[in-house]
Each structure stands twice: as C-alpha cells, then as structure tokens.
Amino acid sequence: MKLAVLAAAAGSAAAFAPASNGRAATSLAADKSQAIPFLPAPSNCDGYVGNVGFDPLRVSDYFPVDYLREAELKHGRMCQLAWLGYVAVDLGLRVPGYPEAMSGATSATVHDAAVEFGALGNIFIWIAIAEMTSWIGVSQMLQGSGREPGDFGFGKQYLEGKSEEQINKIKLQEITHCRAAMMAFAGVVTQSVLYEKGFPYF
C-alpha cells in the first residue's frame, strides 16, 4: 500500500516538472522574433522574403501583410532615389531649365524656395496621379488577383530563366537596400539640417 502511495505521489510531482526534451525548447525558440528575441514572432509575416520578425507594434495583426510589404517597398524605392537626388543637388547637379530663383538653394533649404516659386503644387499633382494609378494594382492585389507586392511589371525580364532560389535572393537584396535607404535618407536629412553643411554633411 505504501509503495502504491509513493508511486502515485512521484507521478503527480512529475506532472509539474518542466519538460526537458529538445523538441519543446526548439518550438519555444522558433516562436520568438529573430530581430527582437524577447518578443514573440509575428506569425502573419511568415513566408515573406526578408522577414526577421520585426513587428514590435504587431501592425501585421491588423493590416494585410501584402499591403504592408507594398508600402515598405514603395517607401524604400523612393528613399533610394531621394538619397541620390538629395546628395546630387548638394554636389551642384541641376537639371536643364532649373528655375533661377531656386538655383542657390540646397537640398535642406529648397522647400521654402519651392513654396515661394510655386513649384510644390506641381509636385503634389504628379504624386497624386502616381498614387491613384498605383492604387489600381494594390486594390487588385488585396482582392486576390495574385499580384505580388511592389510588382508593376518593371524589370521582370531580369528574373526570366532564374530559379525560385535566385529570385528570392534578388528580392532579399531589394528589400535590404530599401530598408537601408530609408535609414540613410533619414540620416542624411538630419545631418544636413543639424550641421548646415553640404555633402558629406559634417
């Protein structure tokens, strides 16, 4: 009888002991974000090229990840062009027909000069047209057309004949450069305003 009681007690105690098999530890580690290890990984981002689990605000729980990736690619591509343009202007590059009233402005000070000259209205119109046109593709994507985020049919010839692994590598390179460009553009604007100097802004 005593032996049966001891066996039952040992069994019930074992039920509360922590599991020590490798499978449970692996599962727990997989549920953590690669970028922020103390936060859970955003499951909705799984399967996307370049996903490192960075979504501390859990935005992907409330918006379609295709839409978020579209926005990330769009802003990243714009920042690559913006960084190049920002630096080029401060190095003295001007396009033919550039208004004389704005010729002395730097990238950091051109906003006020453009407002005074009336150029920002034209810029706004062209941006609005681009946004409305691109929304057609985005809307179709969100309705299940099969369109991939950021795909406007431009440059797809470079993917022809490549394997899925090679295509994913190119996509990873693009999203990596997009993320770097967003940080770089924020940095170059901040540096040029703080130090009020041209390139290299210190």
Structure write-up:
11% of the residues are buried. The chain has 202 residues and is mainly α.
Q: Which secondary structure elements does this structure contain, and how are they paired or packed?
A:
Blueprint: H1 2-15, H2 22-30, H3 65-90, H4 110-117, H5 120-142, H6 164-195
Helix pairs in contact: 3-6
Identify the notable features of this structure and list them briefly:
single chain, 55% helix, 202 residues, disordered N terminus, globular, mainly alpha
Tell me the Rg in angstroms: 26 Å
- Return the average pLDDT rounded to an integer: 84
Give the number of helices: 6
Which overall shape is indicated by the principal axes computed on the Cα atoms?
A: globular
User: In angstroms, what separates the terminal alpha carbons?
Assistant: 84 Å
Largest sheet: none
Percent in helix: 55-70%
- N-to-C SSE string, H for helix and E for strand: HHHHHH
- Secondary structure: number of strands: 0
Which segments are poorly predicted (pLDDT under 50) over 5 or more consecutive residues? 1-28
- Report the structural category: mainly alpha
Beta-strand portion reads under 5%
